[in-house]
Amino acid sequence: MKPVTVTQVNEYIAKRLRDDYNLRGLPVEGEISGLSRGGQHWYLTLKDSGSILKCAIWGSNVRRIDMSLVENGKKIIAVGDISPYPKGGSYSFSITHVEAVGEGDLMAEFNRIRKKLEEEGLFDRKWKKPLPEFPLRVGVVTSSTGAAVEDIKKIITGKNDLTDILIFPTQVQGDGAAQSIIRNIEIANELVRSGYRIDTLIVGRGGGSAEDLAAFNDEGVARAIFASDIPVISAVGHESDFSISDFVADVRAETPTAAADMAVMDTAQLRDDIEYDMQLLLTSIRHKIKTERQLLTSRTDLLYSNMKGKLADARSSMEKAMILIRENDPRSIFSKGYAAVLDDEGSVIPDVTGIIEGNDYTVRMRDGSFTARAIEIRKE
Q1: How far is it, in rounded angstroms, from Cα 206 to Cα 226?
Q2: d(Cα 29, Cα 75) in Å, to the nearest integer?
Q3: What residues have CB less than 8 Å from 208, skipping those under 6 apart?
Q4: Contact call for residues 35 and 42 (beta carbons, < 8 A)
Q5: With the C-alpha atoms ordered 370, 374, 376, 378, is the resulting torsion angle positive or negative?
Q6: Neighbours of 182 (CB within 10 A)
Q7: pLDDT at position 331, please?
Q8: Has this prediction a pTM greater than 0.85?
Q9: Does the structure show a pLDDT above 90 at 132?
Q10: Which residues 6+ apart lie within 8 Å of 96 measured at CB?
């Protein structure tokens, strides 16, 4: 038999698919997962317990569909056609109509766990621990090979040159993922209890389908995060993704990149702020010194002026006293020709009423004294 080409095989299969009327207007029931948008088109996966079917809602059909029914976790009946893609050897289901069925299994389990933990109070704000402002070591519970861990390392090392990063290699999807996450959260806390420092713990992974993120909706993972003594940042998927881990963690980050950014402070900015504050402090100190120096100079001048005034007043008073002393010095009076009459005891007799006729008295003059007898007393 002559061999055929790959293209011939794919085109043959595509033709058979197009010609099969059973694959036209086909109603398919399944749960929506991995919903995303590209331009005007929407892409999703319909799943049941055994298989998945890749689907697309082309832009030309969007206006005919109630897009409020198209959400991750919702179970729907999608009507559409099988669309082969010969070049890629694949096919997808082109949806033209959507009907609601009910809540999908994943969403039902998500809501059950969320309600249970919320009723137990695990989401209460009073349990939320603040993130440390100056962490010296950040632990990261995530896959050691994914893009998320590289983004986290890039952001932290680019923003902060003081904080260490400790990676806990973790399985984040598939069987055993929840147990791996729980164990690494417990290991991080055991290290802290043994004296090893971990200030903040980032728990998460990059984006993916609802199935990929399912481990972070596990009840055991939620309880491990709640029991952590280390403040936990939950960073699961993209901005639009919400997990049970987000509600129970101390802080929810929209993405792993956002978690890394909020986990550490910008040391370059911190240094700039310190330098600015130091310059502001030095300027304030210089101004204070200048003001105090001016005040000291002013008060010194005032004190000096007051001292000069007091000295001048004291000098004036002393000069007046000296003049008064000189004027009242008996020797000054004697130099003008006056004399003092003294009795036997040496006391000055101020007027003639103290003189007794016939008695002798001492007469004191400027340059000596003599004895005189009172012969006659005359009052004036």
Answers
A1: 21
A2: 7
A3: 34, 173, 237
A4: yes
A5: positive
A6: 21
A7: 65
A8: no
A9: yes
A10: 25, 61, 64, 65, 79, 80, 81
pLDDT of 230 strictly over 70:
yes
**159 token code pair:** 């923003």
DSSP 254: S
Closest residue by Cα to residue 62 from 29, 37, 81, 28? 37
Residue 143, classed as helix, strand or coil, is coil
- Rounded mean pLDDT of 202-207? 92
> Nearest-CA neighbor of 129 among 41, 206, 39, 232?
232
- Find how far residue 76's CA is from the centre of its chain: 46
* Alpha carbons 232 and 213: distance in angstroms, whole number: 18
Pairwise pLDDT comparison (326 vs 113), residue with the higher score: 113
Question: Are the C-beta atoms of 247 and 123 separated by less than 8 Å?
Answer: yes
Q: Which alpha helices (H) appear in the chain, and where do they start and end?
A: 6-19, 59-62, 105-120, 147-159, 177-193, 219-227, 244-248, 256-263, 267-328, 330-334
Enter the tokens of residue 169: 């290699």
Based on its alpha-carbon atoms, the radius of gyration of the chain, rounded to whole angstroms, reads: 54
Tracing tokens 């005007």 back to the chain, one arrives at 40
What pLDDT was estimated at residue 104?
Answer: 66
113: region left, alpha or beta (phi > 0 left; psi from -120 to 50 alpha):
alpha
Average of per-residue pLDDT across 293-297? 91
Query: Are 248 and 228 contacting, i.e. CB atoms less than 8 angstroms apart?
Result: no
Neighbour tally for 46: CB within 10 Å: 22
Please tell me the distance from the alpha carbon of residue 36 to that of residue 123, in angstroms, as a whole number. Answer: 29
Six token digits for residue 372: 């005189």
CA separation for the pair 89, 85 (Å, rounded):
6
Percent of the chain with pLDDT over 90: 46
**CB-side neighbour CA atoms (13 Å) of 115:** 6
Q: Is 122's pLDDT higher than 70?
A: yes
Let me know: does 229 contact 193? Beta carbons within 8 Å.
yes
CA distance 301 to 376: 70
SS3 61: helix
The pLDDT mean for the chain works out to 88
172, pLDDT greater than 90 = yes
Q: What is the pLDDT of residues 8-29, one digit of tens each?
A: 888 888 888 888 878 888 889 9
Q: What is the CB neighbour count within 10 angstroms for residue 28?
A: 16
